[in-house]
Design brief:
About 15% of the residues have low confidence. It is globular, with a radius of gyration of 19 Å. It has a domain of about 80 residues: Pex19, mPTS binding domain (Four Helix Bundle (Hemerythrin (Met), subunit A), Up-down Bundle), CATH 1.20.120. The chain is an all-alpha fold and about 150 residues long. Helix 3 packs antiparallel against helix 4. It comes from Blastomyces silverae. InterPro entries: Pex19 (IPR006708), Pex19_C_sf (IPR038322).
Length: about 150
């Protein structure tokens, strides 16, 4: 799938940016990738795991985070619950445009809300490298003291 995206980008660049059809082709490839990444098969298990962890984490850490972070995390918890709930609905299908649109909308809201707490998100690469929180995306307490910040 990544190769398709790179080929589409390459063909657009090779045309000098003059071809409107190239932009349309790139959009189609990008949307295809996004649909594959936002389907139930890819998202259900991580979302279910996050959903199961969020409630207890919020109870335990309510007084340990800023008011702004708490509001953001509570919103994320609601969004995750809505996504899992939709996936669990009888008759849910990635093939139904309304179901896909619902999941896509919730995922966009999750993205806009920032990263969930680091403690709730497993990161096998960072764990394997012995750098917990290293690739967290700036949503938590993980510090890397030797890493220059901009």
């Amino acid at each position: 799938m990544l190769m398709q995206l790179l080929k589409a980008m390459e063909s657009g660049a090779g045309a000098g940016g003059a071809g409107g059809g190239d932009d349309e082709n790139l959009d189609k490839v990008f949307m295809g990738i996004m649909e594959q990444l936002s389907n139930k098969e890819m998202l259900y298990e991580p979302m279910k795991e996050l959903h199961d962890k969020f409630g207890p984490w919020l109870l335990e850490n309510r007084d340990k985070v800023s008011k702004e972070d708490l509001e953001r995390y509570e919103l994320q918890s609601v969004l995750v619950a809505e996504i899992v709930g939709k996936f669990d609905e009888e008759g849910y299908s990635d093939e139904k445009p309304a179901d896909r649109a619902y999941i896509w909308e919730k995922m966009q809201k999750m993205q806009a809300a920032g990263s969930p707490p680091d403690a709730l998100v497993s990161n096998p690469l960072a764990d394997e490298l012995g750098l917990p929180g290293a690739f967290a995306g700036g949503g938590g307490d993980a510090e890397m003291p030797q890493c220059p910040q901009q």
